[in-house]
Design a protein that fits this description.
The chain is mostly helical. It folds into 2 domains: 10-75, Winged helix-like DNA-binding domain superfamily/Winged helix DNA-binding domain (Arc Repressor Mutant, subunit A, Orthogonal Bundle); 79-128. Helix content is 60%, strand content 9%. The protein is elongated.
Length: 129
C-alpha cells in the first residue's frame, strides 16, 4: 500500500521507532512492552497502541498480517522513505513555486549537507543515465 500520509504524532513516531528498530512481526503487546520500558511511556493502554497501529496501517506506514486472532505489524517503509515522502508531499503543496521553496530550505543547509546533496544528485544522474 502506498504511503497516504506522512504526518506522525509523537506516539506514532515512538511506535514507528520500535517497528524500525525491532524488525517485522510485532504484536500490539510487543510494541506496548517496548514502549513501557521507556520512562515517558509508562501508562499507555493496550487499546491506545492498537488504535495507533491501526491508524499507521491505514496511512500505509505500517503493514499488518494476521497471526491467529492477533495482528502482526511491520514498518511498510524505511525512515528514509518516509522522510522522502514527507518532502515530496511538502513540495507538492507548493506547486506554484517549488524552486523557491527548495531554495529557502537549502539556504539553511550546512556545507556538509550541500556536499551530501551534490553527491545525491550525482547518484540520481548516474542511475538515470
Amino acid at each position: 500500500m502506498p504511503l497516504r500520509s506522512t504526518s506522525l504524532g509523537d506516539l506514532e513516531r515512538a511506535v514507528m521507532d520500535i517497528l524500525w528498530s525491532e524488525g517485522p512481526g510485532m504484536s500490539v503487546r510487543d510494541v506496548l512492552d517496548h514502549l513501557e520500558r521507556r520512562e515517558h511511556h509508562k501508562e499507555l493502554a493496550y487499546t491506545t497502541i492498537m488504535t495507533v497501529l491501526d491508524r499507521l496501517a491505514k496511512k500505509g506506514i505500517a503493514d499488518r498480517s494476521r497471526d491467529g486472532r492477533a495482528w502482526r505489524y511491520s514498518a511498510a517503509a524505511s525512515r528514509e522513505e518516509l522522510a522522502a515522502s514527507a518532502l515530496r508531499s511538502t513540495l507538492d503543496s507548493v506547486k506554484a513555486d517549488r524552486t523557491a521553496a527548495m531554495l529557502h530550505f537549502l539556504d539553511d543547509a550546512s556545507p556538509g549537507e550541500l556536499d551530501d546533496l551534490r553527491a545525491a544528485l550525482a547518484e540520481v544522474e548516474r542511475r538515470r543515465a
